[in-house]
Amino acid sequence: MDTENLRYLLEVARTGRLREAAARLQVDETTVSRRISRLEQELGVRVFDRTPQGWRITEPGRLVVPHAEAIESSVSRAMEAVASRAGELSGAARILAPDGFGANVLMPGLRPLLDTYRGLSLEVITATSHDLITARDFDVAVTLEQPSPRAAAVQHLADYELRCYASREYLGRRGTPESVDELRRDHDLIWYVDAMLDVVPLRILDELLPRAHARLQTTNITGQHSAARAGLGVALLPAYIGATDPELVGVLPDELRISRTYWLVVPRDLSELLRVREISRAIRALAAEHPYLTTRAN
Predict the structure, then answer these.
(1) How many Cβ atoms sit within 10 Å of the Cβ of residue 114?
(2) What residues contact 30, with CB distance under 8 A and at least 6 apart?
(3) pTM for the full model?
(4) How does pLDDT run across 58-104, given as a tens digit for each residue?
């Protein structure tokens, strides 16, 4: 078997699209297709079903994936061992994070890590989506869902609070609600698009405001924050966003607040890589130093 073909298997399995896999492998689509066909010939089974919606991995293909990941990890460790002997930490790493944490905590705090390791490059994927985590296409992830510890090392990272915020202009125009019922009845709410929210810990609007309907819905926390600043309604935001924005005012801060948890997740076969350990250490330090995040001993 040409083990290089396994690298192509992993990229197609992770992206589900020939074009995206080719772009990440820096080859053309024909090369990817040819490599996959050659792998299928070597294995004697079909590893992908080609459909108009994309390339869907078959059950035999799923059985191959863990072995391909193990080879990928071994190669990474070998390259890192050579680099570390030369006194360098280099290579690329992919970090997944919810969009709020990624944009407001992670990205502003990456400079010390990048300044220390000039040979390290990072891909930061910020999205609040269940699918990104289950695809396992990352080196380090911060997630709202606690994954199974079978395939990943999972640590508590931090707790945070979600509270309601609105702009001063909005409250001046519409009035400040004095009760939960008044907020639900007389004000415009800003939240996620309900049909597209697949992260269970964020399905909380009905828990906080029973029978409430968000008049303005968007797919990410950045849009909700912008809408609140623009005076479009009352948004349920992490306190590390809302409380640090001078344009926003807390709404019913004693009545409406809910705590959620961030988890630090590392695939077990990558946990010994030096760059993964250093990235994890940097993220834990960011969480421990942040005034609106609460950490605890793991």
Answers:
(1) 12
(2) none
(3) 0.75
(4) 999 989 988 888 887 777 767 666 655 545 666 788 999 999 999 99
Q: Which pLDDT score, from 0 to 100, does residue 129 have?
A: 66
Cβ atoms of 130 and 199 closer than 8 Å: yes
DSSP 157-216: EEEEEEEEEEEHHHHHHH----SHHHHHHHS-EEEE-GGG---GGG--HHHHSTT---SE
Distance CA 164, CA 179 (A): 12
Q: Which pLDDT score, from 0 to 100, does residue 1 have?
A: 78
Q: Which among 280, 250, 249, 252 is positioned nearest to 264, based on CA atoms?
A: 280
Question: For residues 181 and 266, what is the distance between their CA atoms, to the nearest angstrom?
Answer: 43
Query: Among candidates 265, 264, 269, which has minimal Cα distance to 77?
Result: 269
CB atoms within 10 A of CB 269: 18
C-alpha angle with apex 13: 12 to 18, nearest 5 degrees? Answer: 25
- Across 221-259, b (16+ Cβ under 10 Å) vs e yields bbbbbebbbebbbbbbbbbbbbbeeeebbbbbeeebeee
Q: What's the half-sphere exposure (Cβ side, CA atoms, 13 Å) at 183?
A: 27
Residue whose entry in the numeric block shows the structure tokens 């800003």: 190
Query: 77: closest CA among 271, 280, 283?
Result: 271
Q: For 188, how many CA atoms within 13 A lie in the half-sphere containing its CB?
A: 17
Amino acid at the residue 49: D
